[in-house]
Specification:
Order of helices and strands of chain A: HEHHEEHEHHEEEHEHEEH
Largest sheet of chain A: 7 strands, mixed
Number of strands of chain A: 10
Strand order of the largest sheet of chain A: 6-7-5-4-8-9-10
Structural class of chain A: alpha/beta
Number of helices of chain A: 9
Oligomer: homodimer
Helix content of chain A: 40-55%
Distance between the termini of chain A: 35 Å
Radius of gyration of chain A: 20 Å
Chain lengths: 210, 210
DNA sequence: CAGTGTGAAGATGTTCACAGCG
DNA sequence: CGCTGTGAACATCTTCACACTG
């Protein structure tokens, strides 16, 4: 695990994985850096470099074995075995995520969901019971869950995150649009829709080519 | 508009804006690069550099005027006037987005929503009527909308995007987890939850410090 | 004199271009 | 012969360190 994969490269590897997922089903079992790069809009050199950094398992004169590459990347991302997550905040967004199939496909199972609103506690969404947030600690420690998803309003997000960390959660996907503080050793991935809009808006107003 | 703002810097500017939004309300009217960097977990040098590249409007020995900086960034991102968007795909995720307040706060108004499902066409969500996707072209051209949000299943995403572009949409926020092809001159921002999970999972499995 | 502005150094990421292997 | 592997050149981003000014 000495490899120093850059964040940028990591991001691209995710794209490769996503693309290979389909390529594998629909096209064939060998892919060249050129084919991949054309599909994703990158340079072939970049792809070779990324894959080379990871170990370089292509065949000269042929390309990369899709199955192998796919499996390698899956394992590389730790998606080869099932992983459990909890979700806090069962409003609209929370609900969508509970039903989102992309998680399951990557073996991420949201097993427990919590909220503070008495009116929705007790309901079930996509087979997951919504419990009182007071029971979070119990669930997390008993099941050694390390993934937490925050879909609460921004105002309570930091508080929820603190509680999560307190229960032992180590990786947090935050959908509340607020800057969250976390201690060393915890990973946080912020998903901010508004930020994406700003990016688009910027490009529209500054006429930057895609 | 000759400034060459890097994508990385742009991303950070978005964070600055988000943080200032609160700082402005809750703290005060002057902020130093150190304060901002501590809050966001960056280096102060980085922040000074970013802001310097944009024009550098701090006061030596004092810091940056929050109001000014905030306004500058808002305008820089083109968020100073209202912008209209359409949304296609009114499932759970689409519904959440229609109700999401972060868009409105940035003056992005989703004015029209479309779907193909006869069962939900005609309903109203957050004050927006769900119309038949066949009427998309009519709406977009009549209102000169340039922003489109795709929240359809992956299988129809490319098709929807093509239609959007055909109607004149120039900037697309894609929530379907599939690689979308777009022509020159159109901006696309992919939002992929699974990708964020992969990122977290990677960090969990490789024990990289945050 | 505190905190920005800023050139220059250093680190990191990308592209080139071609050698080398299947 | 084709496409990967790969050092080296190049481009970009980040950090340093201190001059400068309100």
């Amino acid at each position: 695990m000495k490899k120093k994969i850059s964040e940028a490269s990591l991001r691209r590897l995710s794209w490769y994985l996503r693309y290979l997922e389909r390529f594998k089903e629909e096209v064939g079992d060998v892919i060249s850096s050129k084919e991949l790069s054309d599909a994703l809009g990158l340079s072939d050199a970049q792809i070779r470099r990324d894959l080379f950094t990871l170990g370089g398992f292509g065949k000269r004169g042929v390309g990369y074995n899709v199955e192998n590459l796919y499996d390698f990347l899956s394992t590389f991302f730790g998606l080869d075995k099932e992983q459990t997550a909890i979700l806090v905040g069962c409003g609209n967004l929370g609900k969508s995520l509970l039903q989102y199939k992309g998680f399951k496909k990557r073996k991420f199972i949201i097993k427990y969901a919590f909220d503070i609103d008495k009116r929705i506690i007790g309901r079930e969404i996509a087979g997951v019971l919504i419990e009182d947030i007071k029971d979070m600690k119990k669930r997390v420690t008993a099941n050694q869950v390390i993934y937490g998803i925050v879909t609460t309003p921004a105002s309570s997000a930091q508080d929820v995150v603190n509680q999560m960390i307190d229960t032992g959660i180590k990786a947090i996907l935050n959908f509340a649009s607020i800057t969250i503080k976390i201690p060393e050793g915890v990973a946080l991935s912020p998903v901010d829709f508004a930020m994406e809009l700003e990016w688009l808006s910027y490009h529209m107003h500054h006429k930057v080519k895609t």
